[in-house]
Task: inverse folding
């Protein structure tokens, strides 16, 4: 092998090393970005579906499962403890008044139980979710 | 009378705090049945009403308010209420001041109220809307800062003449106390005149409906497994003062008069009922522009015109929440159980 060929071979190897390093860097960047997005989405869905750990003083491992709603249930406004919805429907002495509000997110507060279940991303079986939603009595909060 | 519901839960509703309270429990805890737990909770609430009523001259709270000593021993619960007074002031930046007992009496709320004003009439007669401000904004001293508590010795210190008005803060605190007692049962829900604490060992999801102050219909529903909700507003306890002006029980600390801010009702979510109560009051007093600042855990705001907003937390993914979310379940449970009842994040 002549010195020229040896230099060419060395240059090829250096180029190959650079390509490999670039490939590895790109892969790491892509995997990191994908992991970040996936983690963010998981947390976002968790919070959006009402499983806000900061809200609960004693979070249950089964909370996601318990919060799933039966798809047969059609209660309105079955949104979550950490709501991501905003209602813009107004009432005034029984009348209806539409008002755009300046806070919160953009979807309407009326959703079905099954929508809530989809949002929760829970792992419960249908049997469990039916039990949790049907065996609790709703409460009402109003001015004292 | 305790009734057994179709869901298998047991519920009792009764008059208390000049309003309605209810306690719902399912499942036994040790030797204590759900029915016994409800009876005990009811008994406690009725006793607390007598002990902490501003309208009964011989109540524990009235005796504290009228005591000529600046430092005096108090019961554990009264000490906790005094701590709550400080907490409310700090949490709300001085908007929720539970030492405005004199001002509320001057405004016309010196005894149990009769039928409230029609919301439409009250709002029509009300002065121009302005957000409330803390007392320091008008150069006055913040009396809630002068209430000092030594939890260890059970002593309360305050300048003679500084009087505490438990109001909604006491109801929130009572809901928290009962929630601590009922936590071992499969499920419980305590409603202290609008301040709700929900939870239980079974982790059941429960719908909480928010009632419209104008029509009484359900404005919005949350689903809670373990948490608290409180609603505060100006339409239920309202009256005409001596000069024919509409008045209510939520005072602007800067003026000592009823606040008309453009909001008629706020429902707040929070980890404790006391915090929910404070958040709801603070959001109402802050007015439409700043209400969301006081609702970090979400809530519902109803405006003068009857429209309403359901608020999401302004920063849903915080470091604290991310950490709590990522923590393995046993650690979360340990962290939760290590919180002292009085010195929880909300207190």
Result:
């Amino acid at each position: 092998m002549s010195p020229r060929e040896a230099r060419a071979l060395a240059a090829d190897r250096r180029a190959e090393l650079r390509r490999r390093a670039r490939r590895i860097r790109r892969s790491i960047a892509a995997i990191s970005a994908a992991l970040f997005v996936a983690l963010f989405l998981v947390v976002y869905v968790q919070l959006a579906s009402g499983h806000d750990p900061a809200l609960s003083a004693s979070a249950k491992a089964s909370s996601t499962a318990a919060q799933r709603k039966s798809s047969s249930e059609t209660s309105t406004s079955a949104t979550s403890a950490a709501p991501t919805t905003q209602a813009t429907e107004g009432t005034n002495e029984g009348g209806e008044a539409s008002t755009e509000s300046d806070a919160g997110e953009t979807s309407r507060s009326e959703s079905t139980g099954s929508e809530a279940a989809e949002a929760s991303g829970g792992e419960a079986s249908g049997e469990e979710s039916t039990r949790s939603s049907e065996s609790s009595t709703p409460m009402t909060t109003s001015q004292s | 009378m305790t009734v057994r519901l179709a869901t298998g839960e047991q519920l009792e509703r009764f008059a208390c705090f000049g309003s309605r309270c209810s306690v719902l429990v399912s499942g036994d805890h040790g030797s204590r049945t759900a029915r016994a737990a409800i009876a005990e909770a009811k008994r406690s609430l009725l006793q607390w009403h007598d002990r902490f009523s501003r309208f009964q001259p011989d109540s524990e709270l009235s005796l504290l308010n009228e005591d000529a000593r600046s430092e005096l021993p108090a019961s554990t619960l009264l000490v906790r209420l005094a701590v709550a007074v400080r907490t409310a002031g700090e949490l709300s930046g001085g908007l929720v001041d539970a030492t405005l007992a004199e001002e509320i009496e001057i405004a016309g709320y010196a005894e149990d109220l009769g039928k409230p004003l029609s919301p439409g009439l009250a709002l029509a007669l009300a002065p121009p809307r302005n957000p409330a401000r803390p007392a320091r904004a008008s150069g006055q001293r913040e009396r809630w800062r002068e209430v000092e508590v030594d939890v260890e010795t059970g002593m309360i210190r305050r300048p003679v003449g500084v009087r505490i008005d438990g109001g909604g803060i006491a109801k929130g605190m009572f809901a928290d106390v009962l929630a601590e007692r009922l936590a071992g049962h499969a499920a419980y829900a305590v409603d202290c005149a609008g301040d709700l604490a929900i939870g239980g060992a079974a982790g059941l999801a429960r719908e909480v409906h928010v009632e419209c102050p104008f029509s009484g219909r359900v404005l919005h529903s949350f689903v809670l497994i373990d948490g608290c909700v409180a609603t505060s507003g100006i339409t239920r306890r309202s009256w005409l003062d001596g000069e024919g002006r509409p008045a209510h029980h939520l005072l602007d600390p800067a003026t000592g008069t009823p606040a008309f801010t453009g909001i008629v009702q706020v429902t707040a979510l929070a980890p404790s009922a006391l915090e929910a109560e404070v958040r709801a009051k603070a959001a109402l007093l802050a007015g439409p522009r700043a209400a969301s600042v006081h609702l970090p855990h979400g809530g519902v705001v109803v405006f003068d015109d009857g429209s309403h907003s359901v608020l999401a937390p302004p920063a849903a993914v915080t470091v604290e929440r991310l950490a709590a979310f990522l923590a393995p379940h046993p650690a979360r449970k340990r962290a939760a159980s290590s919180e002292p009842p009085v010195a929880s994040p909300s207190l």
In short: Chain B touches chain A through 98 residues (CB under 8 Å). The radius of gyration of chain B is 20 Å. Chain B has one domain: 3-337.
